[in-house]
Amino acid sequence: MAIKRLPRPRDPIALAKLIGDIATGQVVDAVDDGKDAGAAAMGRRGGAARARALSGKQRAEAARKAANARWKAPSDAQ
């Protein structure tokens, strides 16, 4: 699972206490965000890695689908 920092409180006194607790090791400054670390790493590589993995026919189909979605009229238009 991917790890991120604890949310910081807006209250200055609570923030100071949290920072002190983190500095002394009483609190670990990490929260599990529920995401798969492998999937997160793959997402950071971007679309270039995905494009290399797809065949030309698959890339063309994905581009066609994206263009249709981009230019489709909004369903709530009157």
Write a brief structural summary:
The protein is mainly α and 78 residues long. The protein has helices spanning 12-24, 37-44, 47-53, 56-71; strands spanning 3-4, 31-32. The chain has 2 domains: 1-35, no CATH class; 47-72, no CATH class.
Q: What is the count of DSSP helices, taking H or I runs of 4+ residues? A: 4
| Sheet of most strands | 2 strands, antiparallel
Helix and strand string, N-terminal first? EHEHHH
Q: How many structural domains?
A: 2
C-alpha Rg (nearest Å): 22 Å
- The count of strands amounts to 2
Unreliable stretches (pLDDT < 50, length at least 5) are none
Give the N-terminus to C-terminus distance in angstroms.
45 Å
Structural class: mainly alpha
Average pLDDT for all residues: 84
Query: Any idea what the shape is?
Result: elongated
Spatial ordering of strands, largest sheet: 1-2
Helix content: 55-70%
**β-strand amount:** 5-15%
Please name the defining characteristics of this protein.
78 residues; mainly alpha; 4 helices
Please characterize this protein's 3D structure:
The structure is a single chain. With 78 residues, the chain is mainly α. The protein has 2 domains: 1-35, no CATH class; 47-72, no CATH class. 56% of the residues lie in helices and 5% in strands. The chain is built from 4 helices and 2 strands, in the order βαβααα. Strands 1-2 form a two-stranded antiparallel sheet. The termini are far apart. The mean pLDDT is 84.
Topology, please?
Blueprint: E1 3-4, H1 12-24, E2 31-32, H2 37-44, H3 47-53, H4 56-71
Antiparallel strand pairs: 1-2
